[in-house]
Specification:
Blueprint: E1 11-15, H1 19-30, E2 34-39, H2 47-54, E3 58-61, E4 74-77, H3 86-93, E5 98-100, H4 101-106, E6 113-117, H5 122-135, E7 141-144, H6 150-153, E8 163-166, H7 169-172, E9 182-185, H8 193-196, H9 199-207, E10 218-222, H10 226-229, E11 238-243, E12 252-255, E13 258-261, E14 264-268, H11 279-292, H12 297-304, E15 315-320, E16 323-327, H13 334-342, E17 348-353, H14 362-365, E18 371-377, H15 381-390, E19 396-399, H16 402-412, E20 418-421, H17 434-447
Parallel strand pairs: 1-2, 1-4, 2-3, 4-5, 6-8, 6-9, 7-8, 9-10, 10-11, 11-12, 16-20, 17-18, 17-20, 18-19
Antiparallel strand pairs: 12-13, 13-14, 15-16
Helix pairs in contact: 5-11, 5-12, 16-17
Pfam families: Mur_ligase_C (PF02875), Mur_ligase_M (PF08245), MurD-like_N (PF21799)
Pathway: Cell wall biogenesis; peptidoglycan biosynthesis
Main location: cytoplasm
Length: 448
């Protein structure tokens, strides 16, 4: 199992003991590097802190005193901890580098690294790229924001074994040396402003993925995305564009119902099993990555004809009395829900709501031509309903929770309708994760 070698820091602070913090701490311990831990959860309820304390590691829990920075020359923070946090802000003020756990993982990687980011579609694209490379016999590793801690995964990496990594803006904002061989920029639209404070900071965090790339690397990017197009000067790597609207001599495109790699036809668009027009961009990006590994076209085509998606991402749940029920709990922003709505020609009964992150919902309501009824719940329910009324849309019911909202959606639906959970909001007002929210929805659907 790999450990850190020639590590340039003398004493590290691990800030936050979620999965990534625990993995970072274990890696530092196994590498015989001096470090301390600071976590907000009280010690008596903190099994991970107790574990490391028994190993002799300095552990401070329950509070964040500035003294934890004494003698520290690197902070490894949990991605979800904002940079306004008292310890992070003070470390940056003192000139102490602040990184996320993927930076440590990068120091261990010995082989091709594919790193994928975007506002929407990251998990679907990461999973699809991994599936294609695996079918091609390349034995890739899957890591990152997809739920598998990178610094755990890459410790088992064999020489030349590809790593396919999903990365969030939270992770990317705090990287310094991290540089992928193949970077993927899917799309960028307004999101996570409660964390980043400004759209500019969010966009810049995404583009940190490509900052250190050179002409020897590749950047797969969405030619149709205006935000990415406006920052072309940031792209120093060899470009591999993809587009669902333009015919190009290179890159990956879809036009006249067919998908092309360069000028060579790969397959018909209708043969792609993954549902939803928005997923076509994810498909093209995945093809572009696979083409850099010289995966045979027959392998790519075979996977695309079988891959139907990822749980909680426009997942078909079941048919209930002639209604088609879909779980899109991963849609935690307006653009994701908009794309989900646009994926169906059937009338939609939409279930939306969750954590109020301070965004306006006017853009969402503007897409309601295909939505016959909307059921809203949670912290943002009143706000979404108010936006609907402001736009003269009155087919709205406010509920307290997913259970009530799902039953109400069924009552408002008819044979042939789509019942769609696509919340346009984060889950944290009532659930720990969007997966928990989706699982609850699925449970309720099976009881209808």
């Amino acid at each position: 199992m790999k450990t850190l070698k020639n590590f340039p820091y003398q004493h590290v602070l691990v800030l936050g003991l979620a999965k990534s913090g625990q993995a970072a701490a274990q890696l530092l311990y196994d590498s015989h590097i001096s470090f301390a831990i600071n976590d907000k959860q009280p010690f008596e309820h903190n099994e991970t802190a107790q574990y490391f304390a028994e190993l002799g590691v300095e552990v401070v829990t329950g509070d964040h005193p500035l003294s934890v920075l004494d003698g520290v020359d690197l902070v490894v923070k949990n991605p979800g901890i904002p940079h306004q946090h008292v310890i992070v802000a003070e470390a940056e003020k003192q000139g102490v580098p602040v990184v996320t756990e993927v930076e440590l993982a990068y120091l261990l990687i010995d082989g091709p690294l594919v790193a994928i980011t975007g506002t929407n579609g990251k998990t679907t694209t990461t999973t699809l790229v991994h599936r294609i490379l695996d079918e091609a016999g390349l034995n890739p590793l899957l890591a990152g924001n997809i739920g598998v801690v990178a610094s755990e995964v890459v410790r088992e990496q064999k020489p030349s074994q590809p790593v396919v990594m999903e990365l969030s803006s939270f992770q990317l904002k705090a990287i310094h040396q991290f540089k992928p061989d193949i970077a993927v920029l899917l799309n960028i639209t307004e999101a996570h402003l409660d964390y980043h404070q400004t759209l500019e900071d969010y966009v810049n965090s995404k583009f940190r993925l490509v900052e250190r790339q050179t002409a020897d690397d590749f950047v797969v990017y969405n030619h149709d995305d205006s935000t990415i197009a406006s920052k072309q000067e940031w792209l120093q790597a060899t470009p591999v564009p993809f587009s669902v609207t333009h015919s190009m001599d290179y890159g990956v495109t879809c036009f006249d119902g067919d998908i092309y790699i360069g000028q060579e036809r790969l397959m018909a668009e209708r043969d792609v099993a993954l549902p939803g027009d928005h997923n076509l961009e994810n498909v093209l990006a995945s093809i572009a990555v696979a083409s850099q590994f010289n995966v045979p076209h027959s392998v790519i085509e075979s996977v695309l004809k079988q891959f139907t998606g990822v749980k909680h991402r426009l997942q078909f749940v079941k048919s209930v009395d002639g209604r088609l029920v879909y779980n899109d709990s991963k849609a935690t922003n307006i653009l994701a829900t908009t794309k989900a709505i646009q994926s169906f020609s059937n009338p939609i009964v939409l279930i939306a709501g969750g954590l109020d992150r301070g965004v306006a919902f006017d853009e969402l309501i503007a897409q309601f031509d295909g939505v016959k009824y909307c059921v809203v719940y949670g912290e943002s329910a009143q706000k979404i309903a108010h936006s609907a009324y402001e736009h003269d849309y009155h087919n709205v019911t406010i509920c307290d929770n997913i259970d009530d909202a799902t039953n109400e959606a069924y009552l408002q639906s008819e044979v042939g309708d789509v019942i769609l959970l696509s919340p346009a909001c984060a889950s944290w007002d009532q659930f720990k994760t969007f997966e928990d929210r989706g699982d609850m929805f699925i449970d309720v659907v099976h009881k209808l």
